[in-house]
């Protein structure tokens, strides 16, 4: 059960990472969006480290 939770967190982490790269590649990236995504990514990373 815990393994599926870890897999879900890793999947979300990868998805957020892709969204950050996508936003950064835009001609005029939205820095507020990037900051929010990075905060989400950090929270997921911290949760993964606790597993």
TrEMBL record:
Residues 14-27 have a biased composition (Basic and acidic residues). Residues 1-36 are annotated as: Disordered. It comes from the Bacteria. InterPro entries: DUF465, DUF465_sf. Residues 1-10 have a biased composition (Polar residues). This is DUF465 domain-containing protein. It comes from Pontixanthobacter aquaemixtae.
């Amino acid at each position: 059960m815990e393994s599926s939770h870890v897999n879900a967190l890793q999947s979300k982490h990868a998805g957020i990472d892709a969204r950050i790269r996508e936003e950064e590649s835009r001609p005029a990236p939205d820095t507020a969006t990037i900051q929010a995504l990075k905060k989400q990514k950090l929270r997921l990373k911290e949760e993964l480290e606790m597993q």
